[in-house]
Amino acid sequence: MENHALIVGATGIAGSNLAEHLLEQGGWTISGLSRSESPLAGVRTLKCDLTDAQSVSRALEGVHPTHVFITAWSRQETEDENCKVNGGIVRNVLDALRGRGLRHVALVTGTKHYLGPFESYAKVAPETPFREEQARLPNQNFYYVQEDEIFSAAAREGFTWSVHRPHTLIGYAVGNAMNMAATLGIYASICKETGMPFSFPGSPEQWQAATDVTDARILARQLAWAATTPEAADLAFNIVNGDIFRWKWLWPRIAAYFGIEAAPYSGATEPLESKMADAGPIWERIVARHDLKAIPLSRVASFWHTDADLGRQVETFNDMARSRKLGFLDYQDTTESFTDAFDRLRADRIIP
């Protein structure tokens, strides 16, 4: 039987990379649930408002996926609202698909499972490396609410599930709320254009500490693997590249890609959100001078999210033993995660 994937959030960084991987793999019919049209030939876009149950139900009328991959979320002002809205997204999709023979549902969450929500992010962290069997934190967390929605629906409908917890996602996407590669690429381009020092904006702890990231392509491969591997059923998995690095090592390598020098680290956090607050007109000049696509700075860079990742004051890296024991042995070089994303952003005329 051919697999039919429904990707919820098909135009985001996780969803679009998953769609590309499934198309390359073959043997998949792919539908994408999102507000905007997928640019990928081979993906049927079903447009809807994920927060509106009726809109989701109309979009999914007559659709019979075998596998659902939930990669979307909507940022709200408080974690209470995050829980209501993002738990609702999962519930809306699974309610609309009741009784249609789903075989597997995969949910993409992240390392905030271990670090807590934005309101109390990384204030208290468990010992590293983070392991999937660690207990939930006592905080409200919309990831937990989304998981519980899936557990409840799985008990009712009889499908298997998997949860995937990437660290900082690196990859190609435009207009994504959590795209560090595009954010750092734009920051470096502005520094190169203006002569501004390319200084690390994060905390001393992040400059020095061991950490890891997740290439969106390795996340896509793990999603497809777990959805089609019986031994991986009903488990949560960390997913990172497989190497550990320190930002003091990686920062000069990112600078070298753009042909600039990495400034000496000041020893203090210098958030990009404030540093780049007035950079809109500078970016418009860069776009015009290099004949780039006229995409507003606020759509291609997510300074706030990169600040949250690089401003942490705790060490953060993840254990991958659970999926490795079950046969998922993929590895991704982290420097290449960034440079490959930069290459593609350049090829598509997003950055100079």
TrEMBL record:
It comes from the Bacteria. Pfam families: PRISE (PF22917). InterPro entries: NAD(P)-bd_dom_sf, PRISE-like_Rossmann-fold. CDD domains: 5beta-POR_like_SDR_a (cd08948). Residues 66-352 form the PRISE-like Rossmann-fold domain. PANTHER family: 3-OXO-DELTA(4,5)-STEROID 5-BETA-REDUCTASE. This is SDR family oxidoreductase. It comes from Rhizobium quercicola.
